[in-house]
Please model this.
Amino acid sequence: TKEYLKKKLDKIDGKGYKAYKDLEGEYEFEKFILYIDHVQGDPFAPPSRIRVKVPQNIADFEFSMYNNPSRQVALEDFLTRSVFEVIKRLPSLKGTGHSGDIYIDKGGQQIIKRSAMVVNKDYVEARLSIGLPAFGRRINSSGAQRIFLEFLPQIVEKSLLKKSLDVQDIWLWVETVEDQDYLRSQLKERGLVAFVADGAILPRESGISDRPLKGGNVVPFESPDSLRIKFQLPNRGEITGMGIPEGVTLIVGGGYHGKSTLLQAIQKGVYNHIPGDGREFVITVADAVKIRAEDGRRIEKVDISPFINNLPNNVDTTRFTTENASGSTSQAANIIEAIEIGTSLLLLDEDTSATNFMIRDARMQKLIAKKEEPITPFIDRVKQLYKDNGISTILVMGGSGDYFDVANCVIKMHNYRPYDVTQEAKKIAEQFKTNREVEGNNEPIVIKPRIPLKKGLEVKGKKIKSKDEDTIRFGYQEIELDYVEQLVDKSQTNAIGEIIRYIASKYVDEKSSIKEILKKVYKDIYEKGLDEVSSFYGKHPGNLALPRLQEVAAALNRLRSFTVK
Ligand code: ADP
Ligand code: MG
Model:
């Protein structure tokens, strides 16, 4: 009980920090059970991990607030943010190192399944981290008593019981997420790959902030008549916006008119966003993959031959391996790997593409004969990708009109407003022929799934651990994910580290492909929860947020020791 906890705390006051270890265990409070799962060794070590479990009959959330996966994620997200808000207003007990910190992993603008909160029929459980209070390296017992005996009950009281929360706000969260998931599920049926709602706010505060840009100069999204469509959402009712059809779509327009901003909103549209974000109803098919050049990355036996052939020194491009890819080979590999794992939409921006991968105009074709140029540019594959593989493309291209020939939809951005200029572009394409030769062959792109070997996933030296949002330490190596743009949360990176460890210990049988292995992992996660992949199953599992299959595969593909058959 909590009296027992108080006694323990009294006993260790002023002792060396290690004596905190005695606290590990569970304690019954009036309205919740406290689990102290892991106690840090000193004030500078990562904070201690605790869980607070409130029986559902006390928390009292109506079943309809979490009775399907969309609603459950939404309610869990809402409660996590509520806990965060309460923590923010607690008095600070900051001492040495992390001591005095109370933390919950609330995430950013996206609403993603995360380990910080679990809601089910039996209980609501919050997973917190606490820097146990210290004076220097000595135990500050009265601080710890305040946290455990005063703050935790307050957190529970104010943020985990339905009666203390704004029920309207809860429903706003739950219904918005449900509408977002519903809209995403309807895209295919309507022949669309993305939807951008009228009134959406696309620009962000800054290059390092994912919050909406504010102020009088922000132009809300307004769809062109010809592309405007309606959806009937289960909660919000009718919504209108721009539907981007399957096939090949170009986003054109002058520099600084909002092209990249539109594409960036679309690439994040694979996730749901919190009410007030501005991108709540920018919705993209869930398996869309942003493709970019990424020179310097490693490539492991990828068949990039649909794009690149006849490299100097007779290098085999059907099983292309390099420690140091070029702009074009990296971009080709990124596409092939996306197809290997499964995608129905590629997103490309001229700003982050290799020019020679994107275009090769008539004059260059005259000067450099096809047999001297290893690259089949994307322009000569993009239609085929749709026709043969069912993979659409949305491409930002302000710099070359050659793409008019292959696009079935052309959207012009002007002063942050979209215009449908498809007919105009087609007319121009008729009038001004490019005179280029179509390159490449007409053979469909068929990808042989690669089969990972065990030895490539052995961890030498230290453990697998994420260092920051874009880096996972894997033994002595680092997996660099800076250019994996659809990774949006540090806790997703954490989860990817755990998933790789899980895969290595469980599913690498040297017969299954990367995709088959990942399918098994996701089946486990859907059946048993995100905690399943944690090395601390049954306790506070660490701060995890669910990544997409695509990002896990991206991490494997960037692991330098990764090897396939
Ligand atoms: P482009 O790719 O066409 O060159 P960007 O998308 O990079 O242009 O946008 C240029 C600038 O305009 C960015 O700073 C962006 O934040 C801002 N911006 C984009 N869309 C809007 C909008 N709807 N309202 C206000 N500012 C915007
Ligand atoms: Mg741009």
User: Anything to note?
Assistant: The two ends are 56 Å apart (CA to CA). The pocket of adenosine-5'-diphosphate (ligand 1) is lined by residues 202-203, 213, 217-219, 253, 255-261, 413, 416 (CB under 6 Å). The first helix runs from residue 2 to 12. The CA atoms of residues 482 and 545 lie 18 Å apart.
